[in-house]
Specification:
This protein has a single domain, classed as Elongation Factor Tu (Ef-tu), domain 3 (Beta Barrel), CATH 2.40.30.70. 7% of the residues lie in helices and 28% in strands. The chain has two helices and eight strands; from the N terminus they run H-E-E-E-E-E-E-E-E-H. It has a six-stranded antiparallel barrel with strand order 1-2-7-6-3-8. Strands 4-5 form a two-stranded antiparallel sheet.
Length: 165
């Protein structure tokens, strides 16, 4: 870990001081880097831990996943495109526990920007195809980013969640 920290001390790029930065943009465009294949046609609330999916990269992104197979888990960022047509955009939801939570305090797909993020087991890589287990995205879903899962940054053993029930 010490060697990794020393690498972080050398900035890869320099950020402009806040007073020199341009105003943050409004809407912006992202492009898919891959899509999901798994035969799941309808979103569902449970059972994703058993689903095996293929994340099929577009040809332009092949070099960008070199070395990913060395990781046991990856993080997939994807578009919840079916939720975009939902008739309501709730600010809060009442969960099965009976407790009410703001939409950002849930894993609901009814989010303002309809983005999903899942940490999944990487089973294999075959060229442009990553085979994963546990991705809660339906067949044809656009993937907009793939990142390696790093336990030192992505897992917090002391993390707390509200009690069930």
């Amino acid at each position: 870990m010490a060697a990794y920290r020393s690498l972080r001390a050398v900035p890869l790029f320099r950020r402009k001081p806040a007073e020199h930065r341009a105003p943050q943009p409004g809407p912006f465009v992202v492009e898919a880097v891959a899509h999901v294949r798994n035969g799941v046609a309808v979103p569902r609330p449970h059972g994703w831990d058993r689903v095996e999916s293929e994340v099929v990269l577009l040809p332009d992104h092949g070099a960008r996943i070199e070395g990913i197979e060395a990781y046991s888990h990856v993080i997939i960022v994807f578009v919840l495109d079916m939720a975009a047509d939902a008739p309501e955009k709730p600010e809060a939801l009442t969960l099965a526990s009976g407790r009410r939570y703001g939409i950002f305090a849930t894993r609901s797909q009814l989010r303002p920007n309809h983005l999903g993020v899942s940490a999944v087991r990487l089973l294999a890589r075959d060229g442009l195809v990553l085979r994963v287990r546990g991705l809660d995205a339906i067949d044809g879903t656009a993937v907009i980013d793939i990142k390696p899962y790093l336990p030192a940054y992505d897992a917090w053993p002391e993390a707390a969640i509200p009690p069930a029930g």
